[in-house]
Amino acid sequence: MGKVLSILIGLILIAVGVWLIVAYDVWRDAVVTFVLGGLVIMAIIVGLGIFVFGLSELRAGAEEPQVVEPSPPAETPSEPTE
Description:
Elements: H1 2-23, H2 25-63
């Protein structure tokens, strides 16, 4: 029952927050500014993560031995030709 109660409380708090943003114009500008700032910070963090991942991939590629593709076996005739 606790899981259902926590979901209901969460939904109620979300609904109240959205209602306060829509009902009062004073909040709208502050909320939009906050969300845009969060998006910028999230983009920077994701970009840094991708950059670090790329650097680690470059370094791992230099440490691994070079892979040589094996050549296919020579074809041998299955039936003698006349």
